[in-house]
Design brief:
Length: about 300
């Protein structure tokens, strides 16, 4: 017997970042939007816990117990007194180390799959509690759709989305470490001497999502990611990739989360394909993918 769960990538349409906390994390106002790029996580009983992976970037995915999906299985097993002996197979389609929460998605997928395989029947609240222990983005990977994340991003409030948004994602040739990007954020802010304001969600952005209005959303995406200057500082060539997408007709262009994947809001499916084609032809990225949002969260297939 095996259980397979499909889990979505995410884009941060707003990422407001506060000052570093004593625990090293930052308070956030993080507007998550799940998009239709998916990993599939399959769990099967085995003699011992092991992880395998296939797909783009699979060679960058750890296959030991440090893998976030493996940690999810261990956490659930410990919570409910089960044996964690499962084979976790991850079929990757979400860019690896791309700021789109691929590792977090795999953790949520493994958690839901193991819950089903072991017949635990944990409540959504129990699963979300384990997700929050695993990482800031893991709870949203479980629920999908659209949500405002506060605290370090793990406390979620569902958001209304009034239509379908069309996106293009340019996958950079290389990765960025999320801790390194936050470290660069702290360095840039500290160097400027500015006081970091408390992170606050944009009312205009929430209204644009609720209306399903791409033009209104585009108008407030500029400057919506507080980590973008840090990502560009560490990966300067992303500025060229962003320029290509804008020139190709994207309504807005931004770094996705901590990067280095860049995201482009398009007016419709045809425009998205045109932007993706221009990005591929430019040679400024390794790949360009189209997707729609919102997308459902972790789903048993």
């Amino acid at each position: 017997m095996s259980v397979t769960v499909r889990v979505p990538a995410k884009v941060n349409v707003q990422l407001a970042v506060g000052a570093a906390r004593p625990d090293g994390f930052h308070d956030l106002a993080n507007v998550f939007l799940a998009v239709s790029l998916y990993d599939e996580v399959t769990v099967t009983p085995a003699e011992q816990l092991r992880v395998s992976c296939e797909g783009p970037g699979a060679d960058q995915v750890p296959l030991d117990r440090t893998n976030l999906a493996a940690r999810a299985a261990v956490a659930l097993a410990e919570r409910y007194g089960r044996d964690d002996a499962v084979h976790i197979h991850i079929a990757k389609d979400i860019p690896v180390a791309g700021g789109m929460a691929g590792g977090s998605a795999d953790a949520a997928g493994a958690l839901l799959a193991c819950d089903a395989l072991w017949g635990i029947g944990a409540s959504r609240e129990e699963l979300l509690g384990i997700c929050a222990e695993l990482g800031s983005d893991v709870p949203f990977s479980l629920v999908g759709g659209a949500a405002l994340g506060t605290g370090r991003g793990e406390r979620l409030r569902p958001l209304e989305v009034g239509g379908t948004f069309h996106w293009v994602f340019a996958v950079a040739d290389g990765g960025l470490s999320t801790p390194a990007v936050y470290g660069e954020f702290d360095r840039l802010v500290g160097g400027s001497g500015a006081v970091v304001p408390e992170p606050v969600v944009s009312a205009e952005l929430l209204a644009a999502l609720a209306k399903g209005d791409s033009d209104a959303l585009a108008a407030v995406l500029v400057g919506s990611n507080d980590l973008q200057p840090a990502a560009l500082s560490l990966f300067p060539s992303l500025a060229d990739t962003l320029a290509v997408g804008r020139e190709a007709g994207a309504l807005a262009a931004l770094v996705s989360g901590s990067g280095p994947t860049t995201a482009y809001l398009a007016r419709d499916a045809d425009s998205a394909e045109a932007v993706a084609g221009a990005l591929r032809a430019s040679g400024s990225c390794r790949a360009a993918r189209t997707a729609t949002a919102p997308a459902p969260g972790a789903t048993i297939l």
